[in-house]
Amino acid sequence: MKYFKILTPQELRNFSKKESIIYFLLYTFVPFIPVLLIVREHIFDQSFILTIIPFLLIFMGNASLVFIYKYSQESEVLSKIHPGCTYQLSVLLLTVYFPGLSLFFVVFNYFLDNLILGIILGCSFIIPFLTIFRRNIFNDSSAILDEEIVFGYNPRFYMIISVCLGLIGYYISFRESSIVAMAMIILIQLILLFPDLMNKIIPVDIRLKEYFLLFISIIIIIFLIIILILNNNLALNFNLYSILKWVFIGILSIIFYKWYINKIK
User: Fold this and answer.
1) pLDDT tens readout for residues 145-197
2) How far apart are CA 223 and CA 6, in angstroms?
3) Rounded to an integer, what distance in angstroms lies between the CA atom of residue 78 and that of residue 235?
4) How many CB atoms lie within 10 A of CB 15?
5) Helices (H) and strands (E) in the chain, counts
6) For a FRET experiment, which of 175, 185, 207, 230 has its CA 20 to 30 Å from that of 8?
7) Which H or E run contains 83?
8) CA dist list (Å): 143 to 82, 124, 138, 140, 205
9) Residue 260 has pLDDT above 70, yes or no
10) CB 92 within 8 A of CB 129
11) Domain boundaries, the chain
12) What pLDDT does residue 261 have?
């Protein structure tokens, strides 16, 4: 019965290899029972295979947590500077779901006869998934600044915001057939993937919570401007790039002014 209760990371780490495999198989295939009951009439159809693959990947991702906890270094499991697991482990815990979720949007839109849109929406997860290769940045050491504990580069916020903006932005860009807007959404996702580089450009440290919130607010404002322009088809005398350029310059000016005032104080 221990497999069917809420287990702590430490309890999962203490599983033997056999127990880990049993846990993985149980949590991969047991959740399939309701799915099989729903689509049982089409079990021999090609559509059945297409339907179960995304769910299989999602359930496998969830079940693989037992191996992530078991084979991660003990220092990576529970953070010593903030509640919960470490930032570097959080990256793994999120990315295991992305392949299944990405394929889900592809398959879902395939059944709606809109495969191209499905592929585009599925691509919303690609850049956030690349965070797995930047665990040297999205880790607990980013939350220590001059021997003080700060917010740091919290991957849960950066990755989830990136996925959400990607899904909405790609959908509207596709609907309006705007390559420029789609390129801007990709740029926004890349900015969220490289906060350390942005930290070298802007005059504030976005590892501090208040400046992180300001930074994210700016990103969302730029995103909303793109969406607003697309939705209203504004007839302007200058292009989208010019609008965003001046908005970005204006926002940076405000940030610099705030930073300068704080320095004076």
Assistant:
1) 888 889 999 999 999 999 999 998 898 888 888 888 889 899 999 999 999 99
2) 39
3) 53
4) 20
5) 15, 2
6) 207
7) none
8) 9, 27, 9, 5, 12
9) no
10) no
11) 72-264
12) 47
The amino acid at residue 242 is S
Structure tokens that stand for 67 in this block: 């191996």
**211 vs 67, 152, 199, 215, 259, CA distance in Å?**
36, 11, 10, 6, 10
Whether 247 shows a pLDDT value over 70: the answer reads no
Give residue 235's pLDDT. Answer: 43
**Please, are residues 12 and 65 in contact by the beta-carbon 8 Å criterion?**
yes
Q: pLDDT for 84-121, tens place per residue?
A: 788 998 999 899 999 999 999 998 888 888 889 899 99
Q: Provide the H-helix boundaries in 4-45.
A: 9-13, 17-29, 32-38
Confidence of residue 74 (pLDDT cuts 50, 70, 90): low
| Dihedral angle over CA of 221, 222, 227, 233, nearest 10 | 120
Rounded-to-integer distance, Cα 136 and Cα 237, Å: 44
Cβ atoms within 10 Å, residue 226:
24
Q: Cα–chain-centroid distance for residue 158?
A: 6
What region, left, alpha or beta, does residue 147 occupy, with left being phi > 0 and alpha being psi -120 to 50 degrees? left
Q: What is the DSSP letter of 16?
A: -
Query: Rounded distance, CA 18 to CA 39, Å?
Result: 32
Q: Kindly indicate the confidence band of residue 238, based on its pLDDT and cuts at 50, 70 and 90.
A: very low
Q: Which residues contact 219 (CB under 8 A, 6 or more apart)?
A: 161, 165, 188, 191, 192
Distance CA 196, CA 155 (A): 12
